[in-house]
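Treating backbone geometry as a discrete language has practical consequences that deserve illustration. The amino acid sequence and the backbone structure tokens for this protein are reproduced below.
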Amino acid sequence: MAFRFQRRIKIAPGIRVNISKSGAGLSVGPRGATASIGKRGLYGNLGIPGTGLSYRKKIDQHQQTSRNSNVNAPNSTLMKVDDDGALSFLYENGEDLPSSIANKIKRTNGDEIRSYLNSVRDKRNELLSTITELHKDIPAPTNNPEYIPKKFEEPKPSNGFWSGVLGFFVPSIKRQFHEKLKSWYRRKSEFESAENDRKELEEKQVFESIDAMDKVLSFYLSEIEWPSVPEIDYDLGSNNKTLALDIFLPSEEGLPNKEWSVPGNAYRLTSRKISESKRRQIYRDYAHAILLRIIGEVYARLPTVDHIMISAYRTGVDTATAQDTDEYILSAIVKRSTWQKIDFNRIARIDPVEAMKEHDLIRNMTKTGIFKPIKPYTTDDLERISND
């Protein structure tokens, strides 16, 4: 792996996918997808195969389950969609339901089951779109960055009525509560102090200190919810006007290779293999979108930087030795003055592949999206262009 630059941004591995604001958050969980049908309705635990991610969500919010839906069925029945798309019905202990009960659930909860399958389908297909849409959240460049505050989210310890009564008679209970409260105030104070330091860092020190620039860049690039996490090495120049970055990309084989659908005549998911040409197109867009997003974060957070050199590489094979080697596929030098010409109010409408052509770009790519190795820009090139 290339180490042209000294600094590395450490981003936790894994795939994180946003759900809508009204939905539930992601968490580490089981493979596949499960749901439960009970007296309170239908709940789903949706998993993305191969990622270890899942979420729980009530999926019949606008529909009432038939009053007879649980006749001769357990109080709570689990549904599960496996990695191949097959739907099964289970007891809470994980054992399969008899087919007679499963068929009755299908007859009485058809709309809810299909809604659940649609949710699983959308979640499995979501990764295909999010990996190419990073650029749609690019912040606009600014010469006066504004600190974005974070809230202290840990709830304050509460001393309920009965705990208060017991504390009156049992001093040790009262002392335990006061210790918890004291500890909470300490953590809150430390958080607020750190936030004040970050405000100073982002609004003042970032104009003067390369160390501050380093911390701000690391913070915001680590905050991005990457659909597939890149490795980022970078160096700030001897002054505060240039920045060089190398981005290590996953291979094309690491992208999803299926699209999922729900057939109209069956309770299951079916998959269709994505063609090689389609996967190349997805990878092409993904590689360019990552570069655009990183460029955007730099010009939104580091006001003194006016030239960025950014290159993307992946693992290739040396045809002379058959050994793995670093293979650069994109390299660009981007001036702030050129970057500012983008209409960031309409950023979702840009084509990442076309957008990169507006800058000093080295790229050897066929019309079908096949990348061929290139020789990337160097820091000498960056210094020469920035001094022109």
Observations:
- The radius of gyration is 26 Å.
- Residues 27-130 form one domain.
- The chain is about 35% helix and 20% strand.
- Residues 12-32, 39-73 have pLDDT under 50 and may be disordered.
